Target: Ras-related GTP-binding protein C
Amino acid sequence: MSSYQDDEEGVPFDGQASSFPKDFGYSGFEGDPENGFDHKPRILLMGLRRSGKSSIQKVVFHKMSPNETLFLESTNKIIKDDINNSSFVQFQIWDFPGQIDFFDSCYDFEMIFGGCGALVFVIDAQDDYNEALNKLNLFVTKAYKINPNIKFEVFIHKVDGLGDDSKMECQRDIHQRAIDDLADSSFEHIHLSFHLTSIYDHSIFEAFSKVVQKLITQLPALENLLNILNTNSAIEKSFLFDVVSKIYIATDSTPVDMQSYELCCDMIDVVIDLSSIYGVKEEQEPAAFDKESSSLIKLNNGTVLYLREVNQFLALVCILREDNFDHKGIIDYNFLCFRNAIQQVFELRNKTQSPLTNSIGSPVVNGKNIIGEGHLSPTLTDEHALS
Ligand SMILES: Nc1nc2c(ncn2[C@@H]2O[C@H](COP(=O)(O)OP(=O)(O)O)[C@@H](O)[C@H]2O)c(=O)[nH]1
Ligand SMILES: [Mg+2]
Model:
């Protein structure tokens, strides 16, 4: 294991959280605690050389601009990156060198896959992908044998160079061949998820959001809270954003359309940019996003974007019709209830070391199952909200 390098290891979170305790984040991965590894879900980035793995990691989590990735040097050892220093989203990303080989004895694959939550396999769609598909099959089957709980995600990457038709064609082809290959090696029960991605638009953030969401055990509870909030406040769409990475860690159960997601991402940029220019007090540590953060943007098509701080790391961004924004008082009140409920979900998780979930996989808040009728309705509902 001498080839591992920790040079990008993030500074541990310093515990300065305003609203939440310092261990606020995801629950630890289900790996063996004895092996001395960090108890964070681990996401592995794999794929051929130059497929775009390091670029993805830099753009999504380190604010690198897509053009700068042209100058990235190729990775020749596993780079472990701790995503937790300033962000709610806490996990490790391991960026693998493209030329990694299973017969290389310096890698301990039992350990690598054993504690892994998700394996992201990146395929360069602008290149010939035959070799990539062979590698995919090899990696997935090997990883599955060691740890069948891994979520397998395939990023069909660099699709910015393809037209709409060829994107679809490429996805269909890769999907079909990957599934066929698995069937040929008698692993047809392995589930692969496919995403079309590019670092030049929001698709990479969207895809990563979905990967990260699968690692959040509290997701059903968060979704449900967002649904309740929306119904009672006449909100059309709401996202719970990790502000630093602009990954959404949950959204309500209506389908996500890319445009709304992009609008919300752009709103976060606007808010952070404006407050780092005008909103930072001199005597304080510069913090562009804090308890006071909130913003309202009216679009000229009768739609309103509304952003509120949920905690140091998270923001709620909602899209609603301008007419429904007349009830701002109710929306704000419902938001406070929502924020409280979120806080309870995570406090509970932090308190109990034992598994949080019950039979239907959702946490219990205040002795009540968070999924189910009537939950929180006494506080969140207001008859006037929809009248
Ligand atoms: N057109 C395009 N190029 C990309 C994209 N992502 C990465 N690249 C380029 O692909 C090259 C290889 O990227 P790199 O991250 O070093 O690949 P790695 O070897 O898999 O880590 C770089 O020149 C990137 O600028 C993308 O989404 N679209
Ligand atoms: Mg690399």
Summary: The chain has two domains: 33-213, 219-386. The chain has nine helices and 13 strands.
